[in-house]
Amino acid sequence: MDYLTWRHVFKLDPAKEISDEALEQICESGTDVILVGGTDNVTLDGVLELLVRVRRYSVPIALEISDVESISAGYDYYFIPSVLNSTDTKWVKDLHHEAIKEFGDVLIWEELVAEGYCVLNPDCKVAQVTSAKTDLTEEDVVAYARMAENYFKLPIFYLEYSGAYGDVEIVKATAEVLENTKLFYGGGITSIEQAKEMAAYADTVVVGNIIYDDLKAALKTVQAVKNTVK
Ligand SMILES: CC(C)=CCC/C(C)=C/CC/C(C)=C/CC/C(C)=C/CC/C(C)=C/CC/C(C)=C/CC/C(C)=C/COP(=O)(O)OP(=O)(O)O
Ligand SMILES: O=P(O)(O)OC[C@@H](O)CO
Ligand SMILES: [Mg+2]
């Protein structure tokens, strides 16, 4: 249940390369967890390789499942996304149903953490792959958040702007209606200021692409988030 207290997350994409030096700095940065996940080209080899490399450090490591073929044992947690604003039930519950039908007898349910995604950047890969309806008003997003918390009782509601910095007013309005479900924010964080701005409303701030574009800037987001009072 540690994820209830996470403030900062680095998301590593198993389809992208990262040097040993950069990985060491990411793992020793003080981040709360390394979340391994991506939308496409995620392979079992990539998922396994990152697990082995990150395990040299004490930071926890979680796998965000995007494809049932690339799940490796040995992670501390398995995060299971459902894209609530997908227009295709495959990404909401059908792949999940298939996986549970196949592995239901052997699943360790305590290791699985369900995430209700709301994907808001129309240009990101995850929006395209899942045919997400991204032209949502603040009211629409707030209703998804309420649905996640009060109806589906999901532990995590994830506002996903992958690749683009999000709308702070939407993040703020969403935070205001969530009591028990944790609000994850991810997307386009490239600076201390942006990290602080989102950390003021989100329980957990996820930093991804900037790791590969500007490692120093990525590392600075850890303390920026941790020093911000929500
Ligand atoms: C110990 C052991 C082996 C345990 C086995 C556990 C097991 C079998 C569990 C199965 C249980 C289960 C219910 C599985 C669900 C399976 C599944 C495939 C669900 C679908 C998940 C889904 C909706 C995927 C869509 C894509 C998505 C939301 C990915 C999350 C990551 C993400 C948003 C990345 C951001 O995109 P990115 O690739 O970074 O984009 P850019 O490249 O543009 O940056
Ligand atoms: O890669 P960025 O844009 O930082 O987004 C982080 C994460 O929310 C992606 O799933
Ligand atoms: Mg990415």
Automatic annotation (TrEMBL):
Question: Organism classification, top ranks?
Answer: Bacteria, Bacillati, Bacillota, Bacilli, Bacillales
* PANTHER family cross-referenced by the UniProt entry: HEPTAPRENYLGLYCERYL PHOSPHATE SYNTHASE, PTHR40029
The residues that the entry says bind Mg(2+) are D13, T39
Cofactors, names only: Mg(2+)
Q: Does the keyword Lipid metabolism apply?
A: yes
Q: Give the family this protein belongs to, as stated in its UniProt record.
A: Belongs to the GGGP/HepGP synthase family. Group I subfamily.
The pathway entry for this protein reads as: Membrane lipid metabolism; glycerophospholipid metabolism
**EC number(s) from the headed UniProt entry:** 2.5.1.n9
Q: Does the keyword Metal-binding feature in the UniProt annotation?
A: yes
Residue numbers binding sn-glycerol 1-phosphate: K11, Y158, L159, E160, Y161, S162, G163, G188, G208, N209
**What species is given as this protein's source?**
Solibacillus palustris
Keywords from the named record: Lipid biosynthesis, Lipid metabolism, Magnesium, Metal-binding, Phospholipid biosynthesis, Phospholipid metabolism, Transferase
| UniProt protein name | Heptaprenylglyceryl phosphate synthase
